[in-house]
Design goal:
alpha/beta; TIM Barrel; 2 domains; 8-stranded mixed beta sheet; 3-stranded antiparallel beta sheet; about 40% helix
């Protein structure tokens, strides 16, 4: 039976021993409850119990009995535990007491937690190394799920003139004044429609890099339909990091990926991506990342993964575009989402991993199911502290997007929505407007996400998805949040079981 501390015995000395034990157990469990924000999460999956401790980032295996007690404590429902449950919970209570003595289940120091205005000021003062340059805001394709359709500029965008491109590169160097690296991300539309400007701006940036003693990195997101040997050689020479939109088997992907004449484009995209990938392999560079978007007839995640792996792509990300007819607040990300659609796959992989003795076999099984990127995401997020209101992506900072007109948007997904212009290349950042944008986002995260145990792992629903056309920003979608929580439970358990060394 759980043994109360001397302090607890002092409070219950006049009670029968059995009643004292129950009272002490309730007092201990109640002390773990923190109403402002969960500091841990306990759950069961595949007949096993788990504890995710937010302050340390640790994920521990528990007995099911201990998990049951912690779930009651987490919900603030200790008084709802039956006396019989406590009478039979001696070992589970000792297990939890030991976990707390080891430093887990600690309550946060609220006095040192920055406020929303303090965090907003820190974000505004951030010296960003990355800038997105939309060298072409139109596209040679007309994919049925594309977010640009919602923004109203698909097919109507312009080529960026060279003088504007150079001005944006100058602006990028000014923003990165405190950084040793300047990162330029060429985006669109389709950036290869204006490849000559990409070449010119790379040359211009390299000269500025020498002048300002900055290292340079270049990135590009492309559909690869216009890829040529000349372009591929240039991207390899300049060591570009490249993401290519590839949705899998052309027989299915072409239901969504068409050009403006209605013709399928997936085979051309595959050929272009392979052309670049093969040259990157020869050069020993990091290979292209294939980014797949599930939508409509092409929504089988495993089939898409199997096809792209079969075509030799080692780096694959899969997300869902959702229903473009839906309310924007209900839309899941059309960018690859680290938790999108993994709940079922994670549970299936977890049950299989539990029966495997060989750690290498476990990780191979995880990789074959396309879950390695999600596990990497979990690993990175577990190392983050919950010390301030936060925005997990680089919106307004490292995703700041500049258009052919010199308008600045928080990220490329906002382009065309004039309510979200946050400055210009000529005049710089509109600090009051960006501050108001950040303040609204952070306040929403604080009011909605602060009460969620998955807040660090999730980081909050995409800001663009929460943004209305008139400039209003809503709370996150309940459907999205429920999906994140259930997916993250599966991935935390899989993460723990596939890496037993974490338990030591």
């Amino acid at each position: 039976m759980y043994q109360p501390t001397e302090f607890q015995r002092h409070d219950t000395a006049s009670q029968p021993q059995e009643s004292q034990d129950r009272s002490a157990a309730r007092q201990f469990l109640a002390s773990l409850y923190y109403p402002k924000a969960p500091v841990f999460h306990a759950f069961d999956l595949a007949d096993r119990g788990y504890l995710y401790d937010l302050s340390s980032g640790a994920v521990l295996s528990l007995t099911s009995e201990a998990a049951t007690l912690l779930k009651a404590a987490e919900a603030g429902e200790v008084d709802g535990l039956e006396d019989s449950e406590l009478d039979e919970a001696g070992e589970a209570l000792e297990e939890l007491q030991l976990i707390r003595e080891l430093g887990f289940l600690a309550l946060p120091d609220e006095e040192s937690r920055p406020t929303v205005p303090q965090t907003t000021e820190a974000l505004l003062d951030h010296s960003s190394k990355s800038t997105q340059i939309l060298v072409q805001t139109s596209c040679n394709l007309k994919c049925s799920y594309c977010y640009e359709v919602k923004n109203g500029f698909h097919g109507t965008g312009k080529r960026m003139p060279a003088d504007m491109g150079r001005a944006i590169v100058d602006f990028a160097f000014q923003r990165a004044r405190k950084r040793g690296v300047v990162d330029i991300n060429f985006f669109g539309g389709e950036p290869l429609l204006n490849f000559e400007l990409v070449r010119e701006l790379v040359d211009y940036a390299e000269k500025l890099g020498v002048e300002h003693r900055k290292h340079l990195s270049f990135r590009m997101t492309t559909n690869a339909v216009l890829m040529t040997p000349e372009i591929a050689d240039f991207l390899v020479e300049k060591r570009f990091g490249v993401m290519v939109s590839l949705d899998g088997d052309p027989s299915k992907a072409d239901s969504n990926r068409k050009d403006h004449s209605g013709r399928g484009t997936s085979r051309k995209a595959l050929d272009g991506a392979k052309l670049l990938r093969d040259r990157q392999r020869v050069a020993g560079l990091r290979e292209v990342t294939a980014r797949a978007t599930l939508f409509g007839e092409n929504s089988d995640r495993q089939n898409v993964l199997d096809f792209l792996h079969g075509e030799g792509f080692r780096r694959v990300m899969v997300g869902s575009a959702g229903d473009l007819e839906a309310d924007p607040a209900e839309l899941p990300a059309s960018e690859p989402d680290p938790v999108e659609g993994v709940e079922g796959k994670g549970l299936t992989a977890l049950r299989a991993v539990l029966g495997m003795k060989d750690p290498e076999e476990r990780m191979r099984h995880v990789h074959e199911r396309g879950l390695s990127p999600t596990l990497n995401h979990v690993r990175e997020r577990l190392q983050m502290a919950d010390v301030a209101p936060s925005i997990s992506c680089g919106v307004g900072r490292n995703t700041l997007a500049a258009t052919e007109h010199g308008d600045l948007y928080p990220c490329h997904r906002y382009v065309g929505q004039k309510e979200y212009v946050v400055g210009s290349v000529e005049d710089g950042i509109d600090r009051p407007k960006l501050a108001a944008y950040y303040g609204t986002l952070l306040s929403g995260y604080e009011s909605h996400c602060r009460k969620c145990w998955a807040r660090i792992l999730c980081g909050g629903q995409c800001a663009w998805e929460r943004s209305g056309d008139s400039g209003d920003i809503t709370g996150p979608s309940p459907k999205y949040c429920d999906g994140v929580r259930s997916s993250m439970e599966a991935m935390l358990a899989l993460y723990t079981e596939s890496q037993p060394s974490l338990l030591s």
